[in-house]
Amino acid sequence: MGIGLLGYSGHAFVVAEAALLCGHHLVGYANKVEVATNPFSLAYLGDERAKTFQGWERCTSFILGIGENKIRVKVAAYVRKRGHQCHTIIHPDASVSSYTKMGEGTFIARGATVNPLCTIGNDVIINTAASIDHECVVNNGAHVAPGAVLAGNVIIGSGAFIGANAVIKEGIIIGDNVVIGAGSVVLKNVADGEKVVGNPARRYE
C-alpha cells in the first residue's frame, strides 16, 4: 500500500520527484493509457474511471499530477467521492511559512516561497520559484505558474491561471477562472473569466 499518482506526464513528473524527495512511497500512476515514458518506474494502475482500476485497493491516498485546472479539480472531486484523500506535497526546497493555511491536494514546487498569513486552498499549484507574499489568498484549483509574483494581500480566484513570470500588484483581486498571460504586470482588479496580457495588463479579446 502507498500513494497513487494521478496523471503521468510533464507536470506529474515534477510532482512525483517532489513526493519521492519527501519520503513518500509511490505505488503507481493513473492515466487513460499506459505511457511509454516512465522515468520513475511506476506501475500502471489503469484509468481511475475504469472498473478495472487497481488504485482503489492498492493506494491509501493520491497526489495530483495534473496541470490543467479544470481537469485537476474534476479528478480530485471524483477521488474524494470515492472516499480517498488527495495529499498536499511541498517540495523540500520550497519555503512555506508555518503561519500559512494550506488546503489538501495542493502542490508547492521547488524554489517557491509562501510568506506568512497566506491562505492556499485545495488542489492549487504554486509552481517553480513562484513568490506569494504576505496575506495572499489563492483559492481552490488555481495555478500560479513558474516565476510568478504575488505582492501582499493579493486574492486569486478559484480556477485562475497566473502565467509564468507575471507580477500582480499588492491588493489586487483576480476573479474566478481568470487567465493572466505570461510576463503580464497586473495593476488593476480582473473580473471573473477575463483574460489579460501585457504590461500593464489589458483585456485580451
Present the secondary structure layout.
Blueprint lengths: L1 E5 L4 H11 L4 E5 L12 E4 L8 H4 E6 L4 H13 L3 E2 L2 E2 L4 E2 L4 E2 L4 E2 L4 E2 L4 E2 L4 E2 L4 E2 L4 E2 L4 E2 L4 E2 L4 E2 L4 E2 L4 E2 L4 E2 L4 E2 L4 E2 L8 E3 L4 E2 L2
Parallel strand pairs: 1-2, 1-4, 2-3, 4-5, 6-9, 7-10, 8-11, 9-12, 10-13, 11-14, 12-15, 13-16, 14-17, 15-18, 16-19, 17-20, 18-21, 19-22, 21-23
Antiparallel strand pairs: 23-24
Characteristics:
24 strands; 3 helices; globular; Rossmann fold; alpha/beta; UDP N-Acetylglucosamine Acyltransferase, domain 1; 6-stranded parallel β-sheet; 2 domains; 30% strand; 8-stranded mixed β-sheet; 205 residues
Q: What is the share of helical residues?
A: 10-25%
Residue fraction in strands? 25-35%
Structural Rg: 17 Å
Distinct helical segment count: 3
Tell me what you see in this structure.
The protein is an alpha/beta fold. The chain contains three helices and 24 strands. The chain has two domains: 2-87, 3-Layer(aba) Sandwich (Rossmann fold); 89-196, UDP N-Acetylglucosamine Acyltransferase, domain 1. The strands form four sheets. It has an eight-stranded mixed sheet, covered by helices on one side. A hairpin with a 4-residue loop joins strand 23 and strand 24. The longest helix has 13 residues, at 69-81. The protein starts with a strand and ends with a strand.
Explain briefly what this protein structure is.
The chain is of the alpha/beta class and 205 residues long.
